[in-house]
C-alpha cells in the first residue's frame, strides 16, 4: 500500500511503500541509514545488508542526495527520533537520480541559500517554518469563521493609498495610473457596512527602502474590520485572535517547533488579556531607560519597540499614538484630540510590531477635514467618504502581518525565511 510519512503512525508493523526523496544518508559496510522526506514529513529508513538483496543494498549505499525514489518496508516505532517511527526497508526503486545537488549538509551562506530558495525550501528547517505558516492561516480562518466574520477579498490593483503615498508600487492600468495594494482596509470598511464583521487575507505591497529583518516588499496581511465595534472591542478581538493562533500552533505543530528548537514555554504563556501601555507612558519609559533619541511626537523604531517588549512576557499593546504620525483615517481620542484611538501590538522576544489597528473616523465633516490636510482628492477617494454619508457607524479594524507572526512563533531571526519566495529590496528572484 502507498502511504505518506505523515500517515506512518497508523501503519505500524505493516509493509508499505512511500514515494520520497533522499535528504541525507549515512552508511557502514553492513547498514545504511536513509533520511527520507516526502513533503509530508521526514523519516529514517534502515537498510540492513543481511536482510535485503545485494542489489537493493548496493543501490541504497549509492543513493545521492535529492534522488527521488520509492521505498518499501515495514514501519516500526523508533523512540530515539522526534518523529517516533522509522522504516525497515526491504526494497527501493529509484525514480530519478539527482547529481551534484547544490545544498549539501554542510553550512552555506545566506545569499547562496537565497539564490537557491527553490531548493532550500526542501530543507527540514524551511519545511517546518512553512508548516507553521500554514497552521497560522488555518487557525485564522477557523477563528474568524467561528466568530461570525465573513471573508471578503479586496482588490490588489487600486487607485487609492491607505498608508501614505511614499511607499506605493506604481503600475500602468491601461491609460491610468494604478498601485499595488498596501492594505485592503478602505475596501474592508465598505465591506463591513455591508456584512458586519469581515476579514481579508491577501498579499500587500510596500515599496519600502527598508532592509531589516522585519521588512518584506511583498507580505501577506490578515485584515478584520468590524461595524459597531469601538477601539476597546477591537483590542479584545486582537488578543483573543493572537492567543488562539499561538495555542493552535503549539497544539498542531509540536514536531515542527521541536525541529526549530523553539522554546515553547515562552509561547505557552501567550493567553489573553495582553498588557497595554499608552504612547505617553512608553515615551516616559524609554526616557527612563536612557533613550535620549526619542521625543513626544516621534515614531518608535525597532530598538524602542524591543526595549518596551522586553518588560513583558506577552505581546504588548502600545495605544493612543500622536495623530500626526498615524494614518489619516484614525479616530481622535474624544478626550484628547492630539492622539488617536489606535494600537500597535508588539510581539515579545524582539519580533516587533505584528498588528496595527485603530477605530476609524465615522464623522463626515472630520473625514473631509482630513482629506484636505492629506490632499486626498479624486474618484479614488470619493467613494470612501460616502461610507460616512449613508448610515455611518462606529467601526474598528486591524491588520496582522503574517510573516512577522510566523517569524515569532517559529523563532526564526529574519522574515525572509517565513514566506516561500521572499521579495526583498535586492531580490526579485527566484
Ligand atoms: O501597521 P500597518 O501599516 O497597518 C495597516 O496597513 C492598516 N491599514 C491595517 C488595518 O488596520 N487594516 O501594517 C499592519 C501590519 C504591521 O503591524 C506588520 O505586522 C505588517 O503589517 N507589516 C509588514 N510586514 C512585513 N514587511 C513589511 N514591510 C510590513 N509592513 C507592515
Ligand atoms: Mg504599523
Description of the structure:
30% of the residues lie in helices and 27% in strands. The chain has 430 residues and is of the alpha+beta class. The chain folds into two domains: 5-96, OB fold (Dihydrolipoamide Acetyltransferase, E2P) (Beta Barrel); 117-417, BirA Bifunctional Protein, domain 2 (2-Layer Sandwich). It has an eight-stranded mixed β-sheet with strand order 6-10-11-18-17-16-13-12. Strand 16 (342-347) and strand 17 form a beta hairpin. It starts with 14 loop residues before the first strand and ends in a 20-residue tail after the last helix. 38% of the residues are buried. Its EC number is 6.1.1.22. Homodimer.
Task: Just name the CATH architecture of the largest domain.
Answer: 2-Layer Sandwich
Molecular shape = elongated
Main sheet makeup:
8 strands, mixed
Proportion of β residues?
A: 25-35%
* Mean pLDDT score: 97
Total count of helical runs of at least 4 residues: 13
User: How does the helix and strand content classify structurally?
Assistant: alpha+beta
GO molecular function: asparagine-tRNA ligase activity
Catalytic activity: tRNA(Asn) + L-asparagine + ATP = L-asparaginyl-tRNA(Asn) + AMP + diphosphate + H(+)
Main location: cytoplasm
Keywords: Aminoacyl-tRNA synthetase, ATP-binding, Cytoplasm, Ligase, Nucleotide-binding, Protein biosynthesis
